[in-house]
Amino acid sequence: MLEDFKTMLERMNSTQPYLLAAHNGKEFDFPYISRRMLVNGIMLPDVFDNSGKKPWETSFIDTMEMWKFGDYKHYTSLALLAALFDIPSPKEDIDGSQVAIVYYESNDLKRIVRYCQKDVITVARLYCKFKGLPAPADGQIVIIE
What we know:
2 strands, 6 helices, mainly alpha, two-stranded parallel sheet, globular
């Protein structure tokens, strides 16, 4: 899965530059994925190789960081921000703390995929709210199975 993800990122980068986005991605998602790649002998794709880069030189968008407005002692969940901005919550079925249980006890990978897809859509809609852009409507979102 990590190798496929790396291949996808490299293929995308060859066509046009892009940024990765997540909520709390700089503190969790991006370091976690990077570490898992290295532990599994996978060289980091350029977008994840931020060694020696200044914060403004990285290719990451973090909606939690955007919401903090420079405050270092504050955490706000994606579910709370979704509620504040009237965006459907990605946490209606499970949340991140339950992923391991759903995987190891239920072996329900499809349920985890749906949760992650909802998370991505929520981050995109939240980013649009922050930037004053129109958020993608349900009919505009393509989910590849």
